[in-house]
Amino acid sequence: MRNRPIQFRLLLAASCAVSAIAASWSVRQAFGDSDFGRPAQEKALRGTGAMGDWNNDAPGVRHLVRLSDLPAPYATPPTGNNPHVVPRPAGTMLKAPAGFKVEEYAQGLEGPRLIRSAPNGDIFVAESGRGRITVLHGATSEGRCETTTVFAQGLRQPFGIAFYPPGPNPRYAYVAQPDSIIRFPYKNGDVAASGPAEVMVDNIPGGKNGGGAHWTRDLCFTPDGRKMFLSVGSHNNAMEDMKPELDARRAAVLEFTPDGKNERIVATGMRNPVAIAVRPSSVGELWATVQEREGLGDDLPADYVTRVVDGGFYGWPWYYCGPGEQPTLKGIHPELKSKVLEPDVVLQPHSAAMQLCFYTGSKFPKEYRNDLFVSLRGSSGRKTRTGCKIVRIHLKNGVPNGEYEDFVTGFVLNETDVIGRPVGITTGVDGALYVSEDANGTIWRISYAGR
Prior knowledge:
By secondary structure, the protein is mainly β.
């Protein structure tokens, strides 16, 4: 299947998605606008009111963005608005809900991106631009990291990290690079690789094997260890150069066996599926954060978080967020419009969704357990800044109702200045959440201290 043109692959995936659309909508219709037991007076910001900017952000603020709320293309002109990164002013702290405490755990890293917790509690950090994986170990009485060690270096933009086999005693640490998956021998407590890298997959499209652009590659395993998933973003924004061959096996989630063999395409049409994770207590239910295209206006199109439907087609490049047609590709594939899957949770456009993690600890209040947390880095494509925060998606029996809630805010100081751009997020074995931000190179720890 990998050698067939992208149009054929996407058309095939779209035909497989018809039944999945009905299943997805039946769940959404069943839940409707349920507030999951919250007091009646607590309502989410809805419609265009859910698409404000950093001034509206605060812990507990809830957002419900529907596809029908999105404007037409070019309702506002495309914008370039890169944030100005500044050191955190003395006395300035991040904001979290009542009872939660936010502390600096580590400083001085260089562009820390994705982070993952090892079974023994160490925090593995992908310093992608530096080409290395760093291990943060322990905590002092002040809550700071005790030691920082380089696990592996000389890598090519490492991003995804996963431990194999799943469970308390892994034997390998897998790392995803733009064009390959490698693994190192690993046992609990190792802070440096005990052997050389072993190449498991050497032909992922990207970098030397097929164009640049979206380079982040995340990977994860099913709980039984039989399947390895990999996310691969598209080679450009919306196929502006009309070279579909560069996106063969891109804008997709791929599946392999842990030895790097038996490749299979799981889902297509995802412009940039930055991060993936399997929901705990499920057989292998895969979720993804997806960054949508730029250049269509301040409030279009929306990034999203969704369950990844096997055989599903999510629209890229011809459609976005369901039936929205890419104006520059109008009329090329009208037959695909009804085949595009709509995402589970629509995020405000230009939020720049990054890593996601399920809260698997026991220290947060009961209502937080098994919920989904997502880091939003914020993009440069909006006149007034949005993103730059951590949000929570509440799940009822593993199912979202479309809302998301601000959890940690305060990364934005004013219209131009930010003190951090959140990227990585993971549940620590101590029951805290750990968050990386790649602007000032800080790792934050969010714990629950009680109300």
